[in-house]
Design goal:
The complex is a heterodimer of chains A (about 500) and B (about 375). By secondary structure, chain A is mainly alpha-helical. Chain A contains 17 helices and no strands. Chain A is globular and about 65 Å long. The chains are: A mainly alpha (about 500), B mainly alpha (about 375).
């Protein structure tokens, strides 16, 4: 490997797959932000692209690009860690490559159809070919089936590799979580006339992905990432992972009930959903404690500063965005007034960014370090301002948007719901309220800042480590340096 | 160092937490599955719980009123008021609603609107679209909704936001189906969401062959009719919430069928006027406004006929009643405290007024509601 140069051909197949998945993920991240800006601008100038790219199209691409790029990011991260964790080369590499291309072509076709065809007649064929018309999982049914097939291939690669190699606590949780994640997608693949029935199962996919299985997935990735970046001890990390799983599924599975307050489902969901979803921040607190403890325990000594910074950002972002902002509106007594307002988009923006964007970015930095021949990526990095500035701009942009949307949400729930009685007139009264309008401008401005941050981040991805001649401070060395805590065992091999 | 020194406490051990993770996940998943089985039976369309109505509910007038027992607002299924005047079987209604839902998905409505509060926040929630006061009154509603959906950009009411709904190129069949879907959706019991929603003025919500609502009324401790015949004859009258209030206020409530029938037309316009005063636009589009304004007085009448509801006892009857509805003056007069007539005939003629929310307000404001046929005439004179 040549330090500071691109060493793509020297990566293993699984690592090459990671690079491919991450590349597409970042393209889609940019697409997400571009379409987010278009949609945000339409709030301010509704005639902009009217009849050409209407709000619903821009918003759908904005959200779908996000869901897909995050899945790509997770897949990329898992391909990155699977060989290291299993101790053997990837099983079924050719299939993994085929699945990547099939999935990517399918995604491209879906996006083109979204943009060009947009919608169809009110017949089943539209749901099969163009657009399913259900938020987050709009992908037409043919693509659903394609996604499931690709996921099965992916599952075979991952589980097969662990079977061929060794199991660990992390890989055990990871594989079981993938089973749940793939299985849950099936719950969204049917049509029914009955709207409450429709939304009931729809939330199985959305909630049990985003607030349960995705969280556990990033828990696994985070656990591995902490071992990599800090040389944290596996036994501690694995134990924490189990605690997080217990807390996450303990609160998140029935926390699903907070989506069943107002969709025609029985009243007992008010109590069950309110109680368990209020507990959902607890595992996120645990994750923060865990990450900060580990980082402090190892005096922040890391071979990869950008990755460590983004992992810490993940711990806090996940807790604040998903935990705090979710908790603020999760009790039914509050949610009655905030459900379906900008409160939800405020929470959504910070939660997805804090919980998922951050950790995928961290992983990409780990990938790049290896790609550049295990290059030095710690202190005194040449061009180190780029990763710091991009991190700052992305966070300032995101937090600014979140706060602007929160203010808009407050206005909406007061003016439209509490005062206006939720009629359409009241809705528009809320939308024209001057603080709401101001908030939309601020959201736009911070969106631009965030986009600038992303552009800088992508530039940094291409340039970081280039021309650097110092080698990585090897993780093994870091592990040796890390003091063995009093009365604790040294690294437990395998963990299982 | 012995082994026990270096082994963590049981509560900090990997094995303990692995077992915990497995047990907790399994238990929660099991509970969710059990709850899901129950919920799915409860939310069957037309199921016993009444939470999700049968599709044929689109044959009925649908309201949304405070339910004292539940502590929040619930849909109220009223008497027959078939959508577009055609009473459908459950199968036909289901097919129509199904087409509507397919259309709403195919046109990606959810990425601007919210549906049961879920979706995007660029356009208003559709949960109670059917009942939104923006449609004016129930007689204008179907026409306005149809006109709007056929050409949303032209008929858009942007309320100062400038946001227009793009033309979805809906076919006539799709338009009707979407309206049917929205009407059905408005009858879903959403535990009181959206908060504090005030539906548009409508006729009586008391189902003629009662049952469910009747039962509820009983539980709420309101007096109910004694006997089948009694029930039938009284249904239209006492029915709804507002009526109850009026009763408490000690005003006579009885009325006859004929009375109700003859007065139906009245209600439609009264509330309309008020809404106007409140400054809400009542017609759907610029063009729509013009073309519809005149319609409202006469059109409703026709509509009601198609819907198979009994109509006023003749042209003359309608005419003689129209003045009364003029509302505005009437209301003022009431507030001014003019004594109004009462009595059997009077009651009859006024019954129709009661049904909806606005009426309730009027009652609460302490305006006398009773009047007689003769009274009406005499008051008409007053009003002008």
């Amino acid at each position: 490997m040549k330090i500071g140069k691109i060493n793509y051909s020297e990566l293993s197949t699984a690592q090459q797959l990671s690079v491919k998945y991450f590349t597409v993920a970042m393209v889609l991240f940019l697409v997400q932000l571009v379409f987010g800006l278009l949609a945000a601008w339409q709030f301010l100038a509704p005639d902009f692209l009217f009849g050409v790219l209407d709000f619903n199209v821009n918003r759908m691409v904005h959200i779908n690009a996000m869901v897909v790029w995050m899945l790509y990011g997770f897949i990329g991260a898992i391909f990155w860690l699977v060989e290291d964790e299993a101790g053997v080369p990837l099983v079924g590499a050719w299939l993994a490559n085929l699945a990547f291309y099939v999935l990517t072509v399918a995604v491209a076709i879906v996006v083109v159809v979204y943009l060009v065809v947009q919608s169809g007649p009110g017949e089943a064929s539209t749901l099969w070919l163009i657009n399913e018309g259900r938020e987050y999982i709009e992908a037409p049914r043919w693509a659903d089936i394609g996604i499931v097939v690709c996921m099965l291939a992916f599952f075979y690669n991952v589980a097969g590799t662990f079977v061929a190699g060794r199991w660990s606590g992390i890989s055990g949780v990871l594989v079981l979580d993938l089973v749940a994640l793939a299985g849950l997608y099936l719950a969204g693949m049917f049509y029914t006339t009955n709207l409450p029935m429709d939304q009931y199962w729809w939330w199985w996919v959305i909630h049990l992905w985003v607030e349960a299985t995705w969280e556990v997935l990033v828990g696994c990735i985070m656990a591995w990432g902490l071992i990599q970046t800090l040389g944290a001890r596996r036994r501690i990390v694995t134990t924490w992972l189990y605690i997080e799983v217990a807390l996450m599924f303990g609160s998140g599975i029935l926390g699903l009930g907070h989506h069943y307050f107002w969709i025609g489902t029985p009243e007992y969901w008010l109590g069950i959903g309110g109680f368990f979803s209020a507990l959902e921040p607890v595992p996120l607190v645990a994750m923060v404690v865990h990450a900060v403890y580990d980082a402090g325990r190892h005096s922040f000594r890391s071979s990869n500063h950008p990755a460590l910074a983004w992992l810490i950002a993940h711990a806090f972002g996940n807790f604040i965005g998903a935990g705090v902002f979710g908790f603020m509106q999760t009790l039914p007594q509050i949610n009655l007034y905030t459900h379906g307002t900008q409160w939800a988009s405020s929470h959504g923006h910070l939660a997805f960014f804090g919980a998922y964007t951050t950790i995928i970015v961290a992983f990409i930095y780990l990938t790049i370090q290896r790609l550049r021949g295990d290059v030095w990526m710690s202190g005194d990095l040449s061009g180190g301002w780029r990763w710091k500035w991009s991190l700052a701009l992305l966070h300032v942009g995101m937090v600014g948007m979140t706060m602007a949307l929160l203010i808009a949400g407050y206005e909406q729930s007061f003016v439209e719901r509490a005062m206006g009685g939720s009629t359409w007139q009241a809705y528009f009264d809320g939308q024209t309220q001057h603080w709401f309008v101001q908030a939309m401008w601020w959201r736009m401005a911070f969106g631009v800042i965030m986009t600038a941050g992303l552009v800088l981040l992508l530039v940094d991805f291409v340039q970081i480590g280039a021309g650097e001649s110092r080698p990585i401070r090897v993780v093994a060395a870091a592990r040796e340096e890390a003091d063995v805590p009093d009365g604790a065992l040294p690294e437990a091999a395998g963990g299982s | 160092m012995t082994e026990s020194d270096i082994r963590p406490e049981w509560w900090a051990s990997e094995t303990f937490w692995r077992k915990c993770a497995i047990f907790v996940t399994g238990f929660m998943a099991l509970v969710l599955v059990l709850l899901t089985f129950h919920t799915l039976t409860v939310i069957k369309a037309g199921g016993e719980s009444g939470r999700v109505p049968p599709y044929s509910v689109i044959n009925h007038r649908i309201g949304f009123a405070m339910n004292d027992e539940a502590g929040h607002m619930k849909p109220v299924i009223g008497p027959l008021a078939p959508l577009f005047g055609e009473e459908l079987t459950e199968a036909e209604a289901m097919a129509l609603v199904d087409h509507g839902k397919l259309t709403v998905q195919a046109r990606n409505c959810m990425n601007c609107h919210t549906i049961l509060g879920n979706g995007a926040y660029y356009a208003p929630d559709l949960t109670k679209a059917w009942l939104d006061p923006g449609w004016g009154n129930e007689d204008a509603r179907e026409l306005l909704m149809t006109m709007f959906l056929e050409d949303p950009p032209t008929n858009a009411r942007t309320f100062g936001t400038g946001r227009r709904m793009p033309n979805q190129d809906l076919t006539d069949a799709e338009v009707r189906a979407v309206i049917a879907y929205l009407k059905w959706m408005s009858a879903i019991d959403t535990n009181g969401f959206p908060a504090g929603f005030k539906p548009l003025p409508q006729g009586s919500l008391q189902p003629v062959e009662s049952s469910e609502p009747q039962a509820r009324r009983d539980r709420a401790g309101r007096p109910t009719a004694v006997g089948r015949g009694a029930v039938e004859s009284l249904q239209p009258v006492e029915s709804s919430e507002p009526q109850a209030r009026r009763d408490r206020a000690g005003r006579p409530t009885a009325a006859g069928r004929g009375a109700v029938e003859s007065l139906q037309p009245v209600e439609s316009s009264e509330p309309q006027a008020r809404r106007d005063r409140a400054g809400r636009p009542t017609a759907a589009g610029r063009g729509a406004v013009e073309s519809l304004q005149p319609v409202e007085s006469s059109e409703p009448q026709a509509r009601r006929d198609r819907a198979g509801r009994p109509t006023a006892a003749g042209r003359g009857a309608v005419e003689s009643l129209q003045p009364v509805e003029s509302s505005e003056p009437q209301a003022r007069r009431d507030r001014a405290g003019h004594p109004t007539a009462a009595g059997r005939g009077a009651v009859e003629s006024l019954q129709p007024v009661e049904p909806n929310e606005p009426q309730a307000r009027r009652d609460r404001a302490g305006r006398p509601t009773a009047a007689g046929r003769g009274a009406i005439k005499s008051l008409t004179g007053d009003a002008t």
